[in-house]
Model the fold of this input.
Amino acid sequence: MAEKNLDFDQYINRYGTRSIKFDFAKEYGKPEDLIPMWVADMDFKTSSYVVDALKETMDFGVYGYSDGGKAYFEAVKGWMKKRHNWDVEESWLIKTPGIVFAIALAIRAFTNEGDGVLIQTPVYYPFSATIKQNNRKVVRNSLVLNGNHYEIDFDDFEKKIVDNKIKLFVLCSPHNPVGRVWTEDELRKIGEICLKYNVIVVSDEIHFDFVFEGKHKVFATVDERFLPISIICTSPSKTFNLAGLQVSNIFIANPELRDKFTKLLYSTGYCELSLPALVACETAYEKGEEWLEGALSYIKSNTEFLKEYLKENIPAIKPVKQEGLYLIWLDFSGLGFSDAEINKKILEEAKIWFDEGTMFGTEGSGFQRINVACQRSTLEKALKNLKKTFG
Done:
């Protein structure tokens, strides 16, 4: 059987499918006639191997309690080794329904109420929300924009750890939304500082299969000394467009940390994945590589198209250098408008729904995040609307 879902230009009508991105504009207080380019899922059908495996599972008609067993772990292990040169052990693996869920568990397991938790802003907004919702304090190591490229202020990183007695740092790698694929040297500097002050690193690596420049390095593999302080969070959900199935694979090699994390997981009463989630993950990692390569090529082409279109038609809107992700961080500050004015024009005139930059922290002022994992026809329409509004 061959992969059947490689036509990424094919328009998929997602309206009426209970899609948060497409069907809930009114509930989010937005007009219903917008081009939705905000939520970080793809508008492509996933691998046909995954679809067929799910159909076979659903047709069976018995949906009892399930687990992945050895076959599931071998599929995950194989993917980590082949794509990321990481040898994982079965005892390290903890399955959770999502990475944000796992981050929340780590916050509760390894910090106390009132403690500071370090993040690097602008960053994926559930990080700060989860910290606050668990009655911890958000401590920000603001990334520094150097030209169109973000860098880490390591002096500030260390100072924030010392001044706030940080026990836990949440790393975003590759970084959402700024598109950085951290170099091995940068990750090593992070790890050395965290080792020095006994800081646990929760590394959200959900976008690790979307790298267009440089090479992703799993944080725990940079130095053998980093493995015992690492909680590595992975998932096939971004890679294969499976977010609605709720499946993540969390790796904790340190038995003491793993025990604390697992006990808290059990206390939630939610420690088993659904059967479709198990089937989809296993199948994707075993048979989905051809589909992923096709998606990566298409997304890269969309990214280049966007960059050229903006350069030729709206040069005041500048994309930050994208090393990874299918999300692009757009700098609107050159237009001379306030955030409120930019947001209003995008919604009411351009008729597009982006993620507003300030959602990711105050450092996001003047920016918008666009999702280019969509059909080229959708991207062209959105860019033409931007040109009419800002060109």
